[in-house]
Recover the amino acids of this structure.
């Protein structure tokens, strides 16, 4: 059996896994503004999740994080321990902080894609937009997702991938007990290429 690698397939699988386990992952989005934890979890989910890539020699793909100074890197192998880089993924967590900070994070992500655009290697961005009740005074939930998508779309030479005609996937919408009250956490994700 021959398997074709597709970064979008991996992205959708990761989002579905996070959604299916939202009680475990919801609280982690509450306070983690760095992508490192999410990249580590992505590798664990992709390599050791329900697909068990680490055991299946017929599926010639695996994922590393922080390899080659990239958030995620996908490799294929020939069955004899020879691996070939096939894709780099840059991951960003974006919260509704000051607009200038959000703009700078998206610009930094875009610049990484432009600089690393290599015809032989797929380079993509996976963006996780995280809103919690804490940020309600800055932007309400829907305003945040809408303004973030508009900001990303302002870069005319990127291609936002659609999933069932949706540009943004709903990942988590949960409430956690937090310091004597309940706190709502909403996570949506999108992916794009340059």
């Amino acid at each position: 059996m021959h398997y074709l690698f597709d970064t979008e397939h991996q992205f959708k699988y990761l989002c579905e896994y996070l959604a299916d386990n939202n009680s475990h992952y919801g609280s982690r989005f509450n306070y983690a503004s760095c992508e490192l934890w999410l990249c580590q979890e992505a590798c664990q989910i992709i390599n050791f999740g329900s697909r068990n890539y680490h055991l299946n020699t017929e599926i010639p793909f695996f994922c590393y994080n922080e390899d080659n100074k990239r958030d995620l890197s996908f490799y294929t192998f020939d069955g004899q321990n020879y691996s070939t880089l096939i894709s780099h993924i840059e991951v960003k967590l974006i919260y509704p902080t000051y607009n200038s900070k959000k703009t700078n994070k998206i610009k930094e992500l875009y610049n990484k894609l432009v600089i690393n655009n290599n015809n032989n290697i797929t380079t993509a961005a996976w963006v996780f937009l995280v809103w919690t009740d804490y940020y309600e005074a800055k932007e309400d939930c829907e305003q945040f997702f809408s303004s973030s998508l508009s900001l990303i779309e302002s870069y005319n030479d990127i291609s936002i991938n659609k999933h069932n005609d949706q540009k943004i996937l709903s990942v988590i919408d949960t409430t956690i007990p937090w310091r004597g009250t309940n706190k709502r956490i909403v996570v949506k994700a999108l992916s794009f290429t340059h």
Q: What stands out?
A: Strands lie at 61-67, 70-77, 83-94, 122-132, 159-160, 169-178, 181-193. The mean pLDDT is 83.
